[in-house]
Specification:
The chain has 13 helices and eight strands. The strands form two sheets. Strands 2-1-7-8 form a four-stranded parallel beta sheet, with helices on both faces. Strands 4-5-3-6 form a four-stranded antiparallel beta sheet. α1 packs across α6. The two termini are about 15 Å apart.
């Protein structure tokens, strides 16, 4: 079985998926995004690095690139994945692939999502950091010790020995020092201003939920393993609930990949810019196959993998 997995924020870069700009279906996807959002999506990813790294633009740009690649793969092969998942923002790409949301509706939702996340915490007051070389329990306990009445928590369980923490800047700084004292190989502040998936996003998640009423939701045609509980859901009400919870709860990526594997997936395709998820998968499931299709070389590898 084959699972398509979609990347989240941080995978963006200027000229992402540029190998495919001449493909008609890619151009049509970018035009559709431009029409929905009233700005030029091609111009954004080709030349405007500062704007591309602003959360409210980053999220629609990654969604657009991911869906363009997904449509291109389907156009070339007629294939349909057996399973889907996405890391944080990438879960919205999975929703489009599963036909839960129309692409234009998903674009508008993630644009709202980005704005609400940025507005939730003033610039400079939030922080995130990657902790390498400690187990999950050690990182959780370090955060609890460092909180001291402020917010800091483990928010992305990305792979064994790699956990991301987020919260108020001073508390994150204290947690970094606690993790170093416990023997972390590295404890690195990340170049972001939005502390995603922690309690500081609770109000933003509630506001995002209000926008869900503006779009039409459909039952998924392909099972999606969701971030919050590493489970699949069929009802649209349950899907909306896990998406609201996702914004202020940890991304259980290790459990998601393990669940995909338990459901039968032994081949994984990272569908979007970058190769972050491919690297994580190698650490989570060393014996599985995973390929990124962000470029022409990746498409060739995928063709061989599926032969």
């Amino acid at each position: 079985m084959i699972a398509f997995i979609f990347p989240g924020q941080g995978s963006q870069k200027i000229n992402m998926i540029s190998d495919f700009y001449d493909e008609t279906i890619v151009g049509e996807t970018f035009d559709e995004a431009s029409d929905a959002l009233s700005y030029d999506m091609f111009d954004l990813i080709e030349s405007n690095a500062a704007k591309l790294n602003q959360t409210e633009f980053t999220q629609p740009a990654i969604l657009t690139a991911s869906i363009a690649l997904y449509r291109l793969w389907q156009d070339r092969t007629g294939g349909v994945p057996d399973l889907l998942a996405g890391h944080s923002l990438g879960e919205y790409s999975a929703l489009v692939a599963a036909e839960v949301l129309h692409f234009k509706d998903a674009l508008k939702l993630v644009a709202h999502r980005g704005r609400l996340m940025q507005q939730a915490v003033p610039e400079g007051e939030g922080a995130m950091a990657a902790i390498l070389g400690l187990n999950d329990t050690q990182v959780i306990e370090a955060c609890e010790k460092a909180a001291q009445g402020e917010v800091v928590s483990a928010v992305n369980f990305n792979s064994p020995g790699q956990v991301v923490i987020a919260g108020q800047k001073a508390a994150v700084d204290r947690a970094i020092e606690s993790c170093k004292a416990l023997g972390a190989k590295r404890a690195l502040p990340l170049p972001v201003s939005v502390p995603s998936h922690c309690a500081l996003m609770k109000h933003a998640s509630e506001l995002l939920g209000h926008h869900f009423a503006d779009v039409v939701w459909h039952t998924p045609k392909i099972p999606i393993v969701h971030n919050v509980d590493a489970s699949t859901h069929e009802s649209t009400e349950a899907i909306e609930a896990v998406l609201i919870a996702q914004l202020h709860n940890p991304v259980e990526w290790v459990k998601c990949v393990q669940k995909l594997n338990k459901l039968g997936a032994n081949k994984f395709v990272e569908c979007g810019p970058g190769k972050v998820l491919s690297g994580l998968n190698k650490r989570i499931l060393p014996d599985s196959s995973c390929v990124s299709i962000e470029d022409a070389a990746g498409f060739s590898i995928l063709e061989e993998m599926m032969a």
